[in-house]
Amino acid sequence: MMRRLALLLLLCTFSFLVNAQVITSPDKNFTMKFELTPKGEPTYQLTYKKKPVIKQSKLGIKTQDVPSFMEGFTVTDTKQNSVDTTWEPIWGEEKTIRNNYNELLVTLAQKDQKDRHIRIRFRLFNDGLGFRYEFPEQDNLSYFIVEDEHTEFNLTGDHKIYWIRGDYNTNEYAYTTSQISEVPKLIEKATIDVHAQVPIDTLSVQTPSMMKTADGLYINIHEAALVNYPAMHLNVDPKNFRLSSHLTPDAVGNKGYLQTDAQTPWRTIVVSDKATDILESRLILNLNEPTKYEDVSWIKPLKYIGVWWEYFVAGKSTWAYGTDKNVKLTDDPNKLTPSGRHGATNENVKKHIDFAAKHGFDAVLVEGWNIGWEDWFGNWKEDVFDFVTPYPDFNVKELEQYAKSKGVKLMMHHETSSSVRNYERRLDEAFKFMKEHGYDAVKTGYVGKIIPRGEYHDGQWMVNHYIYVAEKAADYKIMINSHEAVRPTGLHRTYPNWIAQESARGTEFEAMGGLAPDHATILPFTRMMGGPMDYTPGIFQTDLSYYNTGGNQRVNTTLVKQLAYYVTMYSPLQMAADLPENYERFPDAFQFIKDVAVDWDNTWVQEAEPGDYVTIARKAKGKDEWYVGGITDEKARTATVRFDFLPKGKEYIATIYADATDASWDKNPQKYTIRKVKVNSKSVLKQPMAPGGGVAVSVKEGSKQDMKGLKKI
Amino acid sequence: MMRRLALLLLLCTFSFLVNAQVITSPDKNFTMKFELTPKGEPTYQLTYKKKPVIKQSKLGIKTQDVPSFMEGFTVTDTKQNSVDTTWEPIWGEEKTIRNNYNELLVTLAQKDQKDRHIRIRFRLFNDGLGFRYEFPEQDNLSYFIVEDEHTEFNLTGDHKIYWIRGDYNTNEYAYTTSQISEVPKLIEKATIDVHAQVPIDTLSVQTPSMMKTADGLYINIHEAALVNYPAMHLNVDPKNFRLSSHLTPDAVGNKGYLQTDAQTPWRTIVVSDKATDILESRLILNLNEPTKYEDVSWIKPLKYIGVWWEYFVAGKSTWAYGTDKNVKLTDDPNKLTPSGRHGATNENVKKHIDFAAKHGFDAVLVEGWNIGWEDWFGNWKEDVFDFVTPYPDFNVKELEQYAKSKGVKLMMHHETSSSVRNYERRLDEAFKFMKEHGYDAVKTGYVGKIIPRGEYHDGQWMVNHYIYVAEKAADYKIMINSHEAVRPTGLHRTYPNWIAQESARGTEFEAMGGLAPDHATILPFTRMMGGPMDYTPGIFQTDLSYYNTGGNQRVNTTLVKQLAYYVTMYSPLQMAADLPENYERFPDAFQFIKDVAVDWDNTWVQEAEPGDYVTIARKAKGKDEWYVGGITDEKARTATVRFDFLPKGKEYIATIYADATDASWDKNPQKYTIRKVKVNSKSVLKQPMAPGGGVAVSVKEGSKQDMKGLKKI
């Protein structure tokens, strides 16, 4: 009896071994093991420096129309491969990115579906794991419907998690920091009111999902290359500390429609024992495809101002021109009833163009220039904007010429109100209109519930729409900055004219209830893992009661923290969001915004802890200039900057923009100091930051004359 | 006590009278009474020649977002108006149409919604009633969602009804004739298999709904001017003989999204004690808006042949070029695996062009010319066709030139597979492609389930799509013949380039199970009340076993009945659907198809009974030529044609195409006689028709020489 048992065990072990495969990361820190369960379910597990990160976790796709890809698999082939290359992004945080991984490609077939196979491709980098499901073209598999994806992430314990609730329509929630086990009791409180929200009714959180283990390991779960598939949220099992994929459904409850050759997006797990490594990870970009465009010369990072913040704070102006409550696109704009409070007037836009020209901004965004703003909101209205009909007080040609004469670009605004058929129908005409009038960048908006009704912002249908718009825009050499779109997954590598996105709770919410002082220390670890954010920083007048429009609202940062955002919140498209007149009140601080680069040769994350602080240094692209930003949450902290990224043996002038000693986000937010010092590669700055404050540093070459009298740091 | 009661009664009567309004038709045959119930519910009732047709029936709209328009109404205004004008359609059954009605416009407000009002507009013609709900622009009503419409049609008894089941996606059912009370027991049997069907789960039938009362009154219920609203089906209460509106929902279950100034389509009730009057009614056209187009010179009725019927019967050819099961629009068509059975080859198309040129047809339709047919069906595939990429054996330029040299137009085919976003995205490019290659008409197809998923063929979203396509096509001077679109409601008056539709079970089903011999006697009373049908008649080779492709299938008519269809099935776009070689076998009968007009000065319905027979005479537009068609169901009958429509005192030559005495649809369908006789305005033809047969007559002027030896009828 014992013998037979032993034999049985041996056989089990044997079968177990055949179906198991192990790869390590190039630096050997990571080990990923693929194996099948006795039922033939694919699983993977991940260790980092010999500690388990992801315990054995199942993989599978439930389908309609064809048998599911869940169990009964055998491994019919495996391939391993190693890659170590570099590539240059069109724009980015680094001039050169290393793509270094070991790959395992497992081919799986089911006993009862022998003529059919799928693949799972794992890529193990020095900063983590990416894997995806692949459905090769084959005789017996062409079309199928994804009913659900069952990808598990079995965590090793009750980690700390920085989370927002899963929602099919919006990412604009405030973050909650808690243990995984605490999610259930906090989820309702975390579900703050956001327009058009559709919170997922199972316990779930959004990706990028940032976690920290009790022993100091940082884990980030997200996805890369979200194309022709719905966005993934994560179901949370708060007892077993298991996360699992939750795909966004379509109008009839299906998740996706695939045609072979097809693949899912990559599921990504970035891991390190240093938080700074998480922010320096380029794993998600590496898992995206190189750009599809042959000519990218027209894609240029830029800094802009806009007719925008005054709509939130100044109380004097509105997007809408008229007071009418019922507007049709066939209406004559001249017959609207003017409110006298319209923001996008010729005069106001010219004022902004003048300011942009004077201070070296590339562009001026103008929102509220086109008919439809009177009744665009909340009516689920299909023919809501036409994108080509200006209000009577916005003279397209006159402003085009004026901007041109000042060497400034106007930036278009296309609020779609999520009426997507309407937008797609008018897209060619809208883009032609832009090019005819000198616009080469557009901010798109997707406020509200989607039309076609029943679809969601995060569903496969909309995912394909955003890419359609990006590609169509590229045909016209137009750059896109999308707001309220699905959160990014590194697709800006493939579509570099999709230059930035919002897809999170940004600065506008400082005027609508405020952002927690730790918000911007979490974003780089969450939302921004997927790509640049048009966070619209630069608010100098943080106390909004200044505008006498009632309430006691404030932007919950110091002025200096707003400067630091230009470095900590990476984007090739940066707004100086405050009103021009506020910048004119603080010209010395404004100088940092004027100076700071928007494209970089290198990035060095100096120090970071999600929810607490982030300090980053970057080298301006093609220039011997460096910029440093440090931010802290509600606690005063000292930022440490090591200037060892500077060329050795040379002195530079550092201009340090610092919170004054008695500054804080809620008291004295506008008290700051600016000092110039000499720095070299051995310099270290220890700079106190106020509660809710930060520090910003520019480093430039200086003549001997400039250096004269400057102290060392 | 009695006094108080009397007073109360008097008050009630008074209030009753105030809220009641009566109008009559211009000829006084109809009386329509509007009144409010004690609960303030709007109602109407209709009598014809003093007989009730519609008993008191409620009207109302249930809404979301705003209080419903169901009850609590008072009449705040009424207006009456009389109209008697004529107008000329761009093309049609008559050169001049009289528009003669008395109108009642009732304005209604609710006590608890005093600042809000709606209107109900009734137009009472000599052929029936049209009414609609109107929502004027006003301060307190701009946007609302239609949750449902509650329009009742309370019938006076258990009428005979010619019906197909209510279905959100398809009209391609076979008709059932029964009493209303019998619908429940027959509905499952009536629900035959139709691709992509979504039978309504309440007991319901489609419109146009044709009924006949026990005392010989004919009643047709449909709608006119279906714009920006879902199509209406009719719920059936088989005990109370009550029909009520059942609107097609959208993906989230709502029925419609309206912005004031808005109105529903007209609900139409055409009534007569003569069946022929129903077919001569122009009420639905009169309730549509005049054309929106300034230039209509490019819109021309036409007769065409096509590479089409062989896909159904001949067994030799297919739409698809390749045998591949997985095709992408990015694939190189030259890399497809040819089946050798492709129908739309250069050679075959040229053969058709030659035939069309030889016999005077305007155009040749070619289906299966473009990549995608390999896997277009049943996969709910989004990127299914691009409408611009031909198969390798279809040379667009060569065929364009060949057709041009022969004076024949090619007709484009755009099967969308109901992938509507895909079609809209490619529409401009597709229409440009057409114009560049000399096409000015397109047959569109909507086979399958709609994408965006969850929408239906008959919903508001798709209703708007079809009109969008018609308007966009007009921009390119392109005519549209839509298949599988929502059934027509007279919109061809407004959009005369939307020249025909299928939207019913047409000739193709003769090759897929057959059509009942009474089918074509019902269609003019049902589907065709809304507009012309591309029925694709003209099948000479009715016994399909002829093709030796297996089965014992047949077209369930005689050859002559197929000729008669060119008159009984009104359409400005008529196909000669059979294979050219079959026409060459019967050149004498084919002459009728070559001769028959497709546009008319006048129409005289000679005799008709739904389900039994239809005989119609028409005068060719601008010509002294007349054509007569008569059809019968499975029973042999004698058609009676009174030639009193001919100018008095003049003799003409009538060519009579008749079933042979021993002909019948199932035996000897191809036996016919052709004889020429002299006719004048006093002539009467009594022509026997075979079971499933018909009669066709052409009447032309003739020289004395031609007339010589001809007998009188």
UniProtKB/TrEMBL annotation, chains A, B:
Keywords: Calcium, Glycosidase, Hydrolase, Signal. The keyword Signal applies. Residues 599-699 form the Glycosyl-hydrolase 97 C-terminal oligomerisation domain. The keyword Hydrolase applies. Residues 23-290 form the Glycosyl-hydrolase 97 N-terminal domain. It comes from the Bacteria. Monomer. This is Glycoside hydrolase family 97 protein. It comes from Pontibacter locisalis. The lineage of its organism: Bacteria, Pseudomonadati, Bacteroidota, Cytophagia, Cytophagales.
